[in-house]
Amino acid sequence: MSAKLRIVQAQLNLQVGNIAENLEKHRLATVIARDQFHADIIVFPELSLTGYPPEDLLYRPAFIQEAQAALLSLAADIKDIYCVVGHPHLERDHLFNACSVLHDGKVIAYYAKQRLPNYGVFDECRYFTPGNASCVFPIQDTQVGIVICEDLWKLGPTRAAKSHGAEIILSPNASPFEVDKHEQRLSVLAKRAKHDNLPIIYVNQVGGQDDLIFDGGSMAVNAMGDCCQFAGFFHESLHPIDFVKKGRITSAPFTVPEPIERIYQALVLATRDYIHKNHFSGVLVGVSGGIDSALTLAIAVDALGKDKVKAVFLPSQYTASMSLEDGKALTDELGVATETISIESTCKTLVETLAPSFAGKKSDVTEENIQARARAIILMALSNKFGYLVLTTGNRSEMAVGYCTLYGDMAGGYAVLKDIPKTLVYKLAAFRNQRGQVIPQRTIERPPTAELAPNQKDEDSLPPYSILDSILECYLNQSQSIEEIVNNGFDRNVVTKVVNLIKYSEYKRKQAAVGPRINHKSFIRDWRYPNTNGFTEL
Amino acid sequence: MSAKLRIVQAQLNLQVGNIAENLEKHRLATVIARDQFHADIIVFPELSLTGYPPEDLLYRPAFIQEAQAALLSLAADIKDIYCVVGHPHLERDHLFNACSVLHDGKVIAYYAKQRLPNYGVFDECRYFTPGNASCVFPIQDTQVGIVICEDLWKLGPTRAAKSHGAEIILSPNASPFEVDKHEQRLSVLAKRAKHDNLPIIYVNQVGGQDDLIFDGGSMAVNAMGDCCQFAGFFHESLHPIDFVKKGRITSAPFTVPEPIERIYQALVLATRDYIHKNHFSGVLVGVSGGIDSALTLAIAVDALGKDKVKAVFLPSQYTASMSLEDGKALTDELGVATETISIESTCKTLVETLAPSFAGKKSDVTEENIQARARAIILMALSNKFGYLVLTTGNRSEMAVGYCTLYGDMAGGYAVLKDIPKTLVYKLAAFRNQRGQVIPQRTIERPPTAELAPNQKDEDSLPPYSILDSILECYLNQSQSIEEIVNNGFDRNVVTKVVNLIKYSEYKRKQAAVGPRINHKSFIRDWRYPNTNGFTEL
């Protein structure tokens, strides 16, 4: 036998629930790993047969049975290579987040995840029982240990594998993207590898799953804690790594993209996968001439190609001519089909219809919402008639303070910028323009406006976005109190107003479309606040 | 000292997050228990100072600090009575679901919940560390043990309290209503009491909290497992119970209402509390002449009084004259204000506006959705202008199969019938009419129709509701597979169609309004399925 072990990282885009298709991907990848890469072992991500996270599908006996059948079917096919595959495993009423090692038609080793994450976006204690045993098995004369995802982030499991003789750790993961998640992973892997003097082969899945973005970023870290191989972000990869006796991992040069590029690519991947995996033929974007819809449109085109994207202009009496000009410049640059449908007659009819009910009442936010909702009806009618999904264009700052209309601009199937603060929207627009100017400079430079009333500006209702986003960072991501935020140097009245706006718009967020998550605390599955909430902090 | 211990069950409606108000309720109840009931001890529900469930408020340090301060403030006030109060307790980075026993200015005993529910609607492992010690303390010469909620449902904690000398168990709870939850509780309490030969004083909170309904139903069960006292459902109560030496609990006669009455009262309480706790001045209901909006309106009137409820008729060309007649009869009987606003001109304008885009296309569901959405815009405009919350009227059967329009009839703040299958809607209407005929007989007897197209009937698109609801019960509540449901005697094509409809309407449910939960598996926090889901079962 050779003095080295060749490992292929199967950084794949797996589909939650689609076990049959996932199984085919496993078969194909295993054949390629064996026949083209001459690998000894291929490692798939966490719960690779089911995709991650399967959520309450795990409560369905039929789902667990199908996964079990797929595992046996795959095992029967594996010849002349070892295969580490992730799957749920049911044993006497206990379900485990497991992986099995397949070789020459048999399951030769088995591991159940020992540390179950149940915070943030994770609910693993809802489904799984923790395992309590290490898994170390020989390939040729190397002792190979397995730990799964969270096991790496906590003390214990790698150390236990080492004490059972492991010389190298293979780790299947399903680790969702966040702005600085790669750096967090690097730091954890380096610490764990050094602490236990063990190289770690880290395999992550890639792809969008509703709000979650799996960025890949599979790595190999040697026993000194240095990252010596990197499989890249946001694309599938079968990445071979050689583990040479005496604990050395072969190195290969790599570059890691800047954070702003990662975020942009994350949004592109999330949007593409939501559309493709849900079998939509394309998307509609209501284009206002503002920065949010411009960036959303650019991302949509980068995700799907211009032929699958349609821009709809929905002008009203308050739409400035520069909005239409900038929208036209944008759609010309991107080369997408456009349609213009005025909302004026619809709004006029609605105002007339409501006039008897509203007699003696002043115009207020009601009339603004009517405009936003008239746009939504028209976009949704186009969506219903032609089968295109509506992308919403609101950003995280608006979503936080409720500066958006329920059933209006919030109406749609996927909210591309839902987790992007307004100040980051500008940075992403600048980044996109560096790769080819598509968003007009005036769209970037003009003051933000909802154009729902004469001469309206966002800053009439909200603090400047630079201040708002700083307060939101403190309150949302860092769970600071009003007192702490004031002590950071912000005006107490402004902070209190923002916190109250956050609280009173919870009901809107509960009815919002799903959208890609990039923050440590996003407004999706890791933000679980009651609508009915008497906490004031005041 | 007397030979008996007098215990007051404080079955209170506490408000999540509103610690200051909850604290005042504790003070007042304690004074009444001591001075009017001459009680030795008062027992509040689980997490009584914060209300239950506080969800991610538990992640906010300022919230935990406020709860801690409230506990100390309450302790300082307690004189000449023992007080068992529920609160989160932070100790060296670990948060516990705790209760403390207060007496004469001091915390004299402390207990941390040992079994944390993390299934169904519960996410307690997200926040809490389990306790690992019994709490048994003396009052006069009686040894009193404490366990919290889930501790009763699992083996271990009561047995351990007994082994530490407990002669009686006090149990603070926050147990949400389900159709047969009272019977489940009775069975668990009887088993536990007999098993450990211990009487149990069971104290539950009461009140609506978003989707959750806490029904109260506090009880006392003696060591033979017999329920000898019952504090009633759906109302606050300070209920005194005497525990006589030698383990006997005094009995008092009681009746338990029938399940149909419980469900009706649960919906009334949930609706009332959502409106009141969120400070809405009233509600709007779009009344169609059909059974769902009729029942919703009746519940709203029973919850809030007729002066806080307004019915809005929104007729179109497809509205039958009998719909308007029946709607009028209903609103006359209930005595609510009404308004009639036709959607015809709005729909006409929208169809004309969209005509160039839809040239050559046949009429389809798009035009039906336009009607539902025109109604939503008008209702929401009234809501915005007058501050009334819109109640949606859709039922669980529709929500399951997506027979509802996003941003149309789904638009609103609270979905009263969201968890009520259509067949149960009829039973609840009949129950309500027994207490005074308000829903016209013709509304109950005519075939269900959405009235969005000529001569439309629900059964043109769906199986008869008796069949649909049976299939939904198997698939949703019992997690049966298609194969199992077919083996129950249902047509395979029908079952497959229903399961596919459930799957493909997940995105709608994700954007639905919150509404009261009565099922073991409701479409709210205990139904966590991905939008992007490749599982077919086929």
Describe the structure.
The structure is a homodimer of 538-residue chains. Chain A is of the alpha/beta class. Chain A folds into two domains: 247 residues, Carbon-nitrogen hydrolase (Nitrilase/N-carbamoyl-D-aminoacid amidohydrolase, 4-Layer Sandwich); 195 residues, 3-Layer(aba) Sandwich (Rossmann fold), CATH 3.40.50.620. Chain A contains 18 helices and 20 strands. In chain A, strands 5-4-3-2-1-14-15 form a seven-stranded mixed sheet, with helices on one face. In chain A, strands 6-7-8-9-12-13 form a six-stranded mixed sheet, with helices on one face. A five-stranded parallel sheet of chain A has the order 18-17-16-19-20, sandwiched between helices. In chain A, helix 2 links the parallel strand 2 and strand 3. In chain A, helix 6 crosses helix 7 and helix 7 packs parallel to helix 8. The interface between A and B is large, with 85 and 85 residues.
